[in-house]
Amino acid sequence: MSSKQGGKLKPLKQPKSDKKEYDEADLANIQKKKEEEKALKELRAKASQKGGFGGAGLKKSGKK
Description:
Helix content is about 40%, strand content about 0%. The protein has one helix spanning about 25-50. By secondary structure, the chain is mainly α. Pfam families: TMA7.
């Protein structure tokens, strides 16, 4: 039983998608999203430099 179809089948190739044409509203939304992502990234970097929040949290007493 020698078959050429042994093993996994190769997936069919997907056709290359055409470049999408955006109007001004779409371009504005894309730009706005990029700016928001950049701002979030900067805030995360700032927060990671400072460390934890100032509160000490719950303290356990030494009593048993």
